[in-house]
Amino acid sequence: MKVSDLVSTGEFQLITEIDADPSIKGCYIGDLLSWVMAHLEESQSWVTIQSHVNVVAVAVLNEASCVILAEGSQLDEDAKAKAEEENLPVLSSRLSAYEIAVLINRMLMKND
Amino acid sequence: MSTVNLEYKVAKEDFSKAGEASSAIKKTLKKLGVNSKIIRRVAIVTYEAEMNIVIHSFGGKIYVEIDTEKIKIIARDTGPGIPDTEKALEVGYSTATHQVRELGFGAGMGLPNIQRCSDEFSIESIVEDYTQVESTIYIQ
Q1: Which one-letter DSSP state was computed for residue A53?
Q2: How far apart are CA B114 and CA B91, in angstroms?
Q3: What does pLDDT average to over chain A?
Q4: Chain A within 8 Å of B20 (Cβ-Cβ)?
Q5: Does A35 touch chain B (CB under 8 A)?
Q6: If chain B, 140 residues long, is cut into consecutive pieces of 10 residues, what is the mean pLDDT of each piece?
Q7: Number of other CB atoms surrounding residue A63 within 10 Å
Q8: What is the pLDDT of residue B140?
Q9: Residue A53 at interface with chain B, using a CB cutoff of 8 Å
Q10: Which residues pair with A90 in a beta bridge?
Q11: pLDDT tens digits for range A30-84
Q12: SS3 assignment, position B134
C-alpha cells in the first residue's frame, strides 16, 4: 500500500507537495516525541496531533513512510517547508487516530 | 575506514533547527555503510542529546567520533548543569516547562533512551558550569 492509496480514499488530504510515494507497512500512534523516537519503525505511517517542525525530524530520523495529522490538526508553515525539503509526505485527516489506524489496517489486510 | 570526526553546534531553544545535527550524522553514517540497526541507535542518541541541549541548556555541541569498532557521541553544553544526575536518569522525571511539554517533549525519556541505546554511557555535570553526556555504540 502506498501513500497515494490513502489519499484516494478521500479521508486524507496530502499537505506537502513532493514527488515521493512511499509504501506503508504499518501504523504507529503517538504524541510524545521521545516515545515515538524509541518505537516508530521504518516504513510505518505515524499518526499524531503534533504539527510543529520537530515532527518532521522525528519522522525522517525513523524513516517513517508518512506523517498523518489526526482530528484536523494542521501543519505549521515552517514544518511544511521542512517536510517538503526532506521529501516527507504529510497528510491531514478529520478522522481520529483510532479510526485512521483501523482504516490503514483494513487496507493492509486487503492488500495481503 | 579511518577515524571520522564530526562536530555540530546546537543552539539554545532553537526548535526550528532541532534535529538537524542528528539528520546530518545519520546521513554520514549511511554514506559510510554502517549497519542500519546501529544507525538507528545512533539516531536516537544524537536526537535526544540534541533536544536536551535545545530544551534545557544554554547551548552546546555534539561531537561524534567514528572508527572501525565504535561510534562515540559526546554532547556537551555550557550549563546550567544538573543538580541530581541520578534523578535525571529516571524514566518519567523531567524539568521541562508546560509549553515544551505541549509540543510533545519533556516525557522524561531522553536520557533513559540514550542509556538504553548505548553500550557505554556516562553523564557528568557541574551546576553553573556544564553537562556532558557520553555514549559509545559498538559497531561489531
Answers
A1: H
A2: 11
A3: 96
A4: yes
A5: yes
A6: 91 89 95 95 97 97 97 98 96 94 94 97 98 95
A7: 18
A8: 76
A9: yes
A10: A67
A11: 999 999 999 999 999 999 999 999 999 999 999 999 999 999 999 999 999 999 9
A12: strand
Residue with cell 506503508: A24
Establish if B134 touches chain A: CB-CB under 8 angstroms. no
DSSP B46-90: HHHHHHHHHHHSS-EEEEEEE-SSEEEEEEEE-S---S-HHHHTS
Domain boundaries, chain B: 4-138
- B104: nearest CB among A31, A60, A62: A31
pLDDT of residue A46: 98
> Domains plus CATH for chain A?
3-111 (3.40.1390.20)
Length of chain A: 112
- Class at the top of the CATH hierarchy for domain B4-138: alpha beta
Residues A73-91 as b or e (16 or more Cβ within 10 Å = b): bebbeebbebbbebebbbb
CB contact (8 A) between residue A34 and residue B19? no
Grid coordinates given for B1 = 575506514
Report phi then psi at B13, rounded to 5: 55, 20
pTM of this structure = 0.93
B38 Rama class: left (phi>0) / alpha (psi -120 to 50) / beta: alpha
Using CA atoms, how far residue A60 sits from A11, A39, B1, B26, B138, in Å, is 24, 14, 26, 10, 23
